[in-house]
Amino acid sequence: MENRKLKNSELERKSVEEFKEAQKTPIIVILDNIRSLNNIGSVFRTADAFLIQKIYLCGITAKPPHKDIQKTALGATETVDWKYTENTLEVIRKLQEDRVKVFSVEQAEGAVMLNDFQPEKGETCAVVFGNEVKGVQQEVVSASDGIIEIPQLGSKHSLNIAVSTGVILWDLFVKISSHTSRNSYFSH
């Protein structure tokens, strides 16, 4: 049979323990007041796929365990390290004190288009994703080290938060992997 679909048992996925022990991609995700439980679950699943360091759930963002988060996370809340913090600005300031560069994903003055953005080698970066209606809070955008915008060519003004997270994390994963031994991931 040509181009046979692989069975789950053939995918060589990590166990929860192997995931916890694995070297993580130096990316942190910050969810700023995300309302949709399904979107939160999707972010966890995407973070699992790219071995993301941590997710911060801020403000009204719901936290596990919750059946609607679990429905889309498919167990990723057990693998990806996460923490709830009420105030997004506090998270950003603490990360910046720890020399993490924080970037809001938003349409704003001074934004760098994702295709032009290049994370610095050896640096951990955090990306902030905002509310489904209002986006990232202005005070969070202002406190960020920079702004990344996903280029869009159609008539709509935004992408779903789960889609935006997938686009950003894949792009950053590829760029960071070009700096490290993670290139072996692409020789599947």
From TrEMBL:
Q: Pinpoint the tRNA/rRNA methyltransferase SpoU type domain residues.
A: 27-170
InterPro entries, alphabetically?
Answer: Alpha/beta_knot_MTases, rRNA_MeTrfase_TrmH, SpoU_MeTrfase, tRNA_m1G_MTases_N
Keywords assigned by UniProt, alphabetized: Methyltransferase, Transferase
Q: Which domain of life is it from?
A: Bacteria
For biological process, the GO terms are: methylation
Q: Which GO terms describe its molecular function?
A: methyltransferase activity
What Pfam family is a match, any one? Answer: SpoU_methylase
Name the chain's protein. RNA methyltransferase
Q: Please give the organism.
A: Autumnicola musiva
